[in-house]
């Protein structure tokens, strides 16, 4: 999905443990025909996407990242598809590959030290569609949602980045900008706005309270 999480920012001291837990989950994800019950990971759209996936992981390794998963899957899946195992990449946010959209199942896990740094890292990429914070601190949540927080078109609290509420305006900023669909503002793109002022009196008032006595 366009809103699928690409970057996971984690407190520095907690990253190693979290990556280990996520790697164990990724290793047992059911891969195959997504039309079958219980299958969570289907094929990439084509071989070009599989090549882009492999190239991104190669760049991540070259830029200092540690990769878990990401291998090609051929056993137990239908023939003819480009199946890969989702990849986890423990990497610093300064690596250029982190800012690129690969449209493949790769999650970059990056450390941070303070909330201000995390917000700055969140905003330090050309894309700005969807973002989220997981916190039990109301002040952190409000900061993330404020003008000083996430610069994305969608900002969630204690939810993932994927999808959007059907009643909310869907759209992004920066390279993923271009207006909003759905929600209360969507209809404005299809309308021509006209400002009307109607005088129901018998006199003709002038603008700004001007009085003219001929």
List the domain count as a whole number.
Answer: 2
Low-confidence stretches: none
- Shape descriptor reads elongated
- Treating each run of at least 4 consecutive H or I residues as one helix, how many helices? 4
At CATH's second level, what is the architecture of the largest domain?
3-Layer(aba) Sandwich
How does the major sheet shape up?
4 strands, mixed
Oligomer: single chain
CATH homology superfamily of the largest domain: Aldehyde Dehydrogenase, Chain A, domain 2
- Mean pLDDT over the full residue set: 91
Short descriptors:
214 residues; Aldehyde Dehydrogenase, Chain A, domain 2; 2 domains; 8 strands
Write the layout of secondary structure elements.
Elements: E1 7-11, H1 15-27, H2 47-62, E2 66-69, E3 87-90, E4 106-112, H3 115-123, E5 127-128, E6 130-133, H4 138-145, E7 154-157, E8 173-174
Parallel strand pairs: 1-4, 3-4, 6-7
Antiparallel strand pairs: 2-3, 5-8
Explain how this protein is built.
This protein has 214 residues and is α/β, with parallel strands linked by helices. It folds into 2 domains: 1-112, Aldehyde Dehydrogenase, Chain A, domain 2 (3-Layer(aba) Sandwich); 114-192, Aldehyde Dehydrogenase, Chain A, domain 2 (3-Layer(aba) Sandwich). Helix content is 21%, strand content 15%. The protein contains 4 helices and 8 strands; from the N terminus they run βααβββαββαββ. Strands 1-4-3-2 form a 4-stranded mixed beta sheet, sandwiched between helices. The protein has a two-stranded antiparallel ribbon with strand order 5-8. The protein has a two-stranded parallel sheet with strand order 6-7. The longest helix has 16 residues, at 47-62.
